[in-house]
Write a structure and sequence with these properties.
Number of helices of chain B: 5
Structural class of chain A: alpha+beta
Largest sheet of chain A: 5 strands, antiparallel
Largest sheet of chain B: 5 strands, mixed
Strand content of chain B: 15-25%
Largest interface: B-C, 55 and 57 residues
Number of strands of chain A: 12
Helix content of chain A: 25-40%
Strand order of the largest sheet of chain B: 2-1-5-3-4
Chains: A alpha+beta, B alpha+beta, C alpha+beta
Shape of chain B: globular
Number of helices of chain A: 11
Oligomer: heterotrimer
Strand content of chain A: 15-25%
Chain lengths: ~270, ~160, ~775
């Protein structure tokens, strides 16, 4: 890791103020992606501003169907929240399968969403849930938030404070992990809400998380795994690496979508 | 540089570290607690697992400065004097270690796992929960056995305590 | 046998320190004044080194020195060697290219060391290493073995034309060809054995300390054989004279072969310590381990097995190209020859065998012994082909194997090995029974109802371990003898220290070796201490690899114990006024058989040391040493059965059950033996399903971290059903065959045979990743 200045922010305003003064500050939440990247000398911020002690960013609020998750909520907290499990069990299931137990103790939903790793789980959930990403400056719909590999709509001095969504009638997530890293090699989050069906795919797209219109169309007719029998996903614009060809990922999208629907209906 | 202080294995410690210092290096080099190991660079092997404020974390993926003010327990602080922690004892009894390098992280992870599952554990859960800990020697067979045995023992003890 | 003697399932003595954080590994060592090293490594697979500019780096904070290969050479440090000479079939010696500890003119693989930076902290050394400017001129690279031998391939070494290291053969080609021509059936396969990275969890490390005042060198290092390291570094690399040089391999976190070899880093750290005047510690990060630890396997082969009309094997013929990487590592040449082709007879009676092996250089990390070393490659070839043959011939895999088993011993194969003992049918029967093989079809049907593809596969392996008679390996080209040494020191109070040349890096020697003394004298293992891993304490040893610590290391201890026992009996006989032939030692007592005359063990020991009343002419004390040179290899063998369930939608393979029935001869501690089998099987399953070192065509290692190299984790594996059958090994005093490598040797073909059975497509290579299995299912449609 290159040299870096660490500081702890007491509030969001404090964090932003410190960031503005620094050459090239990065906000540090759980650090489970950022610190490995810095260790590998792939990221070299001048300053790290630790957000994990900001009380306002913590907590999970569930009121009926309305869910607000503080950006500082760890994966373990999301996974274990009883109210959330009632409103939207799929997101608890997703959180319970990010990384490993130690990573889940540190990693946060805000950090994951802000980082927008193309193989991260949360972006698929945010898009499929039609979530709103709330920052210190504005509210951004998930559809407009994720801009490609590791790219988001966030400005330099903008901090995610929470994410919120209306729990859909049905939601399910299924992922096929990369055999080495255990990140999603393909993950599909499907929802059926009042605005219809959404299916968001992570881990597979050349340009990060995306909605599969094909799967959404099929599931709109019948929100059942059987509706996806015979659906053939195109391998265009899918990632290819030593672990999975684009064709294999295309297959996994269809299979994971089926399993996500089955889990949503279970 | 940052001045940091924390409680490690029940003892107040402090030090002045470069901000880029990882918690694992502060423990190993700053405090001489070399039981916590580094087995990879990508936060996957889990040889570095310690407990911070009661939760298992990877000390190679946390700055020492992040742990300023925290309560840290390492493998050296797990036993109660000469009495082994039940997880340590189970690893020995069931041959849950060979070269010993992943063992401290395994034991810290197992302890955390058992604490989080007071309802008890089954083999599938233990294997899934070990995702963040890699062992090259044992094929995990006896690690799983040791954790299941320790979980049984600790839960029995816990229940007995509650009843008393 | 006492409670803690031979055969007892006692918990390990060494565990206490490991479970409490008290293990002492090389990276835990601290020497006053110690500084930290980071290597500057080639980012190119093949490049000329034009210039190394260290000025900027030298000016960085904390930097003590930046050194390069030219300085090392100027100080007289030698090139790395391969210690096993193989002769090509035309009689020419192998073509060994020069391997400089730090490349001075050409870098030949990504990660090759070019310079070393020593600084106050590791972070400072890393900062400065980035500031070392190396000017390279890139050359074309070649990474695949078959491609490397093709005309026009990029050339690595002037000494090895066409990148060929040797073209070697074994067996009778004419006889094999004739039998194949006359055969009723021939099964032919093309088989690749995937390249693996050993991945001991403790990365390699070295701490070199030159003490100027004493003119003495100490090296703490992650070694499986510290004495060999001292010998080679002293005699061949000119690092330090042996009498002024101490090598310590303290607790070592796994080896699996990768820590046998002497690598550039420990040489350079010692030299750099003398050069800079400070103790120098280097610890590999995981990516360095991936790039620079010796890799394993990497064979491309064709095989033919011929059968007569009764399904009896008449011949086996194999042709193999093996990739040895950019340089010849210490024992690399022996792995694809004498440790491989000599096992191609498997468990079968095969009248004619021929194998041709060509090895080559490529722009990849050096390849050498990794758990099993040659024997997994042989087993995979034979056992996949046998299973395939059974399918082609329409007979059950068990029946075809049984029909061809060797049943009489000793058995001389056509490829050097003389199997001394075994009962292959017994292990096959045990595994069939444990796996409920006979009711498998019912399970297959039940799985099909759930949309899953079940398959079952077996593998009957044999290996040669405990290497080996020194004269025999010497005649085959080995540069060393492969005996072992032991010293048994009995203290005046009866406690015992055993000094051994074997090295434990997870094998539990501190317990099993103590069990031998406990068995012999009835003393508790707690009063027996094992000393190893330090050239200042143990005079000489050959170390631990090739499952040799039991068969060879413990045999040396047995010999030394024989001498101690004989002397103790003489002392006791003198005191008890009896004949030493009538003395028995048991449960800590030394008795005259058939009488009530006895002494306590410690009384006899004390008498040996007070020497007030010992036989005339006897030297005082009770300490004996022995060197043991085995009379043959040992031949562990067994049968593994694997049952899998494949998800046809994703290609994901779940191992439903894995059964092992092994014959290891005599077992000292069954708990530890089972642990060895578990670990070996896990590595074999890793090879079969997950692991592969991928280089791209330019020589970049694509799998250089756990992000891309798939290590077996707990949820990839089931619990294993292991059991043993026993035929005693006649070639050593304890009857031990060895158990360290069996799991890694026998398991890969069992897994792949199960998968091909499940999916109905035999055309699949290791690792059978979910993607590969899915693609094979699609191809079979």
């Amino acid at each position: 890791m290159y040299s870096v200045n660490y500081s702890r922010a007491a509030s969001v305003a404090d964090a932003v103020k410190t960031a503005k003064k620094a050459d090239d500050a990065k906000f540090l939440s759980g650090g489970q992606t950022l610190i490995p990247a810095m260790k590998a000398r792939l990221a070299a911020p001048s300053d790290l501003i630790d957000l994990s002690h900001i009380g306002d960013m913590k907590g999970i609020k569930v009121s009926g169907k309305n869910v607000t998750i503080g950006a500082g909520a760890t994966h373990a907290e999301v996974a274990a929240n009883a109210k959330l499990a009632k409103a939207c069990p799929a997101i608890c299931h997703l959180a319970a399968h990010i990384g490993d137990p130690h990573v889940r103790h540190m990693g946060t939903i805000g950090g994951s969403v802000a980082n927008n790793d193309p193989a991260a789980d949360y972006p698929a959930a945010m898009v499929a849930l039609g979530a709103t990403i709330k920052t210190n400056k504005r509210e951004i719909s998930a559809d407009k938030f994720f801009k490609g590999l590791f790219e988001t709509a966030l400005k330099d001095d903008e901090v995610i404070t929470s994410v919120s969504f209306t729990a859909p009638a049905k939601a399910g997530y299924a992922k096929f992990p990369n055999p080495a890293s255990r990140y999603a090699m393909t993950g599909v989050f499907v929802t059926k809400g009042k605005d219809g069906v959404r299916a968001a795919v992570t881990g597979a797209g050349d340009d990060g998380v995306f909605r599969s219109k094909l799967i959404e169309a099929a599931l709109s007719k019948s929100f059942d795994a059987s509706a996806l029998e015979g659906v053939s996903v195109s391998s265009d614009d899918l990632m290819e690496d030593i672990h999975a060809s684009a064709d294999y990922r295309a297959n996994l999208i269809a299979v994971m979508a089926k399993r996500a629907v089955a889990s949503a209906n279970a | 540089m940052s001045d940091i202080s924390m409680v490690v294995n029940g003892r107040n410690v402090s030090g002045s570290v470069e901000d880029r210092t990882l918690l694992v290096h502060f423990l190993r080099e700053g405090l001489g607690l070399t039981g916590t190991h580094v087995g990879c660079d990508t936060s996957q092997c889990g040889a570095c697992v310690v407990h911070v404020d009661g939760k298992a974390v990877k000390s190679c993926t946390m700055l020492a400065a992040q742990a300023d003010g925290a309560d840290v327990v390492t493998i050296e602080g797990l036993a109660d004097g000469d009495d082994l922690h039940p997880v340590q004892a189970a690893f020995k009894e069931h041959h849950g270690l060979q070269c010993g390098f992943c063992t401290p992280g395994m034991i810290m992870a197992a302890t955390d796992m058992i604490n989080r599952h007071p309802e008890g554990l089954d083999e599938a859960t233990v294997r899934a929960e070990l995702e963040g800990n890699i062992c090259r020697c044992t094929g995990y067979h006896n690690i799983v056995k040791a954790i299941l045995a320790a979980s049984k023992k600790m839960n029995k003890k816990g229940k007995a305590k509650k009843a008393a | 046998m006492g409670m803690e003697g031979i055969g007892a399932r006692v918990a390990r003595k060494e565990d206490k320190r490991f479970i409490t954080g008290g293990g002492r590994y090389t990276d835990d060592m601290v020497v006053p004044g110690m500084k930290h090293a980071v290597f500057v490594r080639s980012p190119h697979a093949h490049a000329s080194i034009r210039k190394i500019n260290t000025k900027a780096a030298e000016a960085m904070p904390g930097v003590i020195g930046v050194l390069n290969g030219k300085q090392l050479k100027a100080d007289g440090i030698g090139n790395l060697i391969c210690g096993w000479a193989i002769t090509s079939k035309d009689g020419s010696p192998m073509n060994m290219g020069a391997w400089e500890p730090m490349a001075t003119s050409t870098a030949r693989f990504v990660g090759e060391a070019v310079a070393i930076v020593v600084a106050d902290t590791q972070a400072q050394a890393r900062d400065a290493a980035e500031a070392v400017e190396v000017t390279y001129k890139e050359k074309k690279a070649v990474t695949e073995p078959v491609a490397a031998l093709k005309k026009g391939a990029p050339q690595l070494h002037p000494e090895a034309e066409g990148n060929l290291i040797y073209d070697w053969e074994i067996g009778d080609q004419a006889a094999a060809d004739k039998a194949i021509a006359d055969a009723a059936h021939v099964t032919r396969m093309e088989i690749t054995n995937n390249r693996l990275v050993p991945n001991a969890m403790e990365p390699r490390a070295a701490l070199g300390h030159y003490d100027k005042a004493e003119d003495h060198y100490t090296c703490w290092t992650t070694s499986q054989n510290p004495h060999v390291a001292r010998l080679v570094m002293s005699a061949f690399y000119n690092v330090a004279p042996e009498n002024k040089f101490r090598v310590i391999a303290p607790d070592v976190g796994g080896g699996f072969g990768s820590k046998i070899f002497i690598y550039p880093e420990e040489i350079i750290c010692l030299w750099a310590s003398k050069r800079t005047g400070v103790p120098v510690k280097w610890v590999a990060d995981r990516t360095e381990s991936f790039m620079t630890d010796a890799h394993g396997r990497d064979h491309v082969s064709t095989i033919e097995i011929a059968f007569d009309k009764d399904n009896k094997i008449t011949a086996l013929k194999a042709d193999t190209v093996a990739n040895l990487g950019a340089y010849m590592s210490l024992f690399s040449s022996s792995v694809p020859t004498y440790l491989y082709a000599t096992l191609l007879s498997g468990q079968y009676n095969i009248p004619a065998i021929h194998c041709n092996v060509r090895t080559c250089y490529t722009n990849t990390a050096p390849v050498d012994a990794y758990r099993g070393a040659g024997r997994p490659e042989a087993c995979y070839l034979v056992e996949r082909t046998m299973e395939t043959a059974a399918r082609e011939l329409g007979v059950s895999p068990a029946e075809l194997r049984s029909k061809n088993f060797i049943t009489e011993f000793p058995h001389q194969t056509p490829v050097i090995m003389a199997y001394d003992a075994g009962d292959f049918q017994a292990s096959l029967d045990a595994a069939m029974k444990a796996s409920k093989y006979d009711s498998f079809e019912r399970r297959r049907k039940a799985a099909a109802k759930n949309g899953k593809l079940r398959g079952i596969g077996m593998s009957c392996y044999i290996e040669a371990c405990g290497i080996a008679p020194s004269a025999a390996v010497g005649s085959l080209g080995a540069g060393v003898g492969l005996w072992e040494s032991a010293e048994v020191r009995v203290n005046a109070v009866g406690s015992i220290e055993i000094l051994t040349g074997s090295h434990s890096h997870g094998q539990g020697h501190e317990t099993t070796f103590a069990q031998l003394a406990s068995d012999r004298f009835g003393v508790p293992i707690d009063s027996v201490s094992i000393v190893h891993g330090d050239t200042d304490k143990v005079q000489m040893g050959m170390g631990t690899y090739g499952s040799r610590s039991g068969a060879v290391g413990m045999s040396a201890i047995e010999k030394a114990l024989d001498k101690v026992e004989a002397k103790a009996k003489k002392v006791a006989a003198h005191l008890l006024e009896a004949d030493d032939k009538d003395i028995v030692i048991e449960n800590g007592e030394v008795k005259v058989a058939g009488t009530d005359k006895k002494l306590q063990w410690f009384e006899v020991c004390l008498s040996a040391y007070t020497a007030h009343n010992i036989p005339e002419g006897m030297e005082p004390g009770l300490k004996e040493s022995a060197f043991y040179d085995p009379t043959n290899f040992t031949f562990p063998a067994g049968c593994y059965i694997c049952e899998v369930e494949v998800d046809p939608e994703t290609g994901d393979t779940e191992i439903i059950q894995f059964v092992a029935a092994d014959d290891f001869g005599k077992i000292i501690n069954p708990m530890i033996v089972e642990g060895q089998v578990h670990g070996g099987i896990a590595q074999g399953i890793g090879q079969a399903l997950l692991e592969c070192a991928h280089y791209d065509s330019g020589g970049e290692l694509l799998t250089a971290s756990y992000m891309d190299y798939a290590m077996p984790r707990a949820d990839n594996l089931p619990s294993f059903a292991v059991s043993t059958t026993e035929t005693a090994c006649p070639s050593n005093p304890l009857g031990i065959k060895g158990c360290g490598e069996a799991g890694a040797i026998g398991s890969p073909p069992a897994v792949i045979n199960a998968i091909t059975d499940a999916i109905g497509n035999n055309n699949i290579a290791m690792p059978a990743t979910s993607q590969a299995v899915w693609a094979a299912i699609q191809a079979a449609k």
